[in-house]
Amino acid sequence: MSRDAFVELLTTDLPDAPAYFAHDGGVERKERPTARRIAGHRPDTLRLEHVLERQRDGAQILDTREPEDFAAAHLVGGQNIGLGGQYATWAGTILGPDRPIVIIADPGREQESAVRLGRIGFDNVVGYLRDGLQSLVSRPDR
Fold first, then answer.
1. How far is CA 120 from the centre of its chain?
2. In a 3-state reduction of DSSP, which class is residue 129?
């Protein structure tokens, strides 16, 4: 098989590269926090009022719970990308890399959510919702 035929065979029907690949290329050329530093940084816990304020100011609300849990109840305007499956690929495709991110996660999984975002250069996590969706019990309108 010729070199050209080999390249054609391997590249036919490849999906487009995820949108965050271009962002990652730029990030890699700049000085950024190391993975170890990101892993050691615990995002701030935010009360619901602060999350809503951040959301009004343009922050992205990322709900990393499983899709079934999100479908049952979620914060209005939140986007769901569960930690199972291709979390980084979907986060990099759906989220804007330059906008702050607030995480809603199952208790104990907030740090994992933030670290996995940091691995693709999305290290602008400003915090996570304290007590997860339990904090919405008093605010069914949200």
1. 9
2. strand
Query: In which element (H, E) is residue 104 found?
Result: strand 101-104
Return the structure tokens found at 26: 């730029």
How many helices and strands in the chain, by DSSP H and E? 7, 5
Instruction: State pLDDT tens for residues 99-131.
Output: 999 999 998 999 999 999 988 888 889 999 987
Confidence label for 28 from pLDDT (cuts 50, 70 and 90):
low
List the one residue out of 34, 18, 40, 19 whose CA is nearest residue 98.
Answer: 19
Q: Which amino acid is at 16?
A: D
Contact 61, 75 (CB under 8 A): yes
Burial 18-48 (b: 16+ CB within 10 A, else e): bebeebbeebeeeeeeeeeebeeeebeebeb
CATH code reported for the domain at 3-136: 3.40.250.10
Return d(Cα 141, Cα 39) in angstroms, integer: 34
The burial class, CB within 10 Å (0-12 / 13-18 / 19+), for 60 is buried
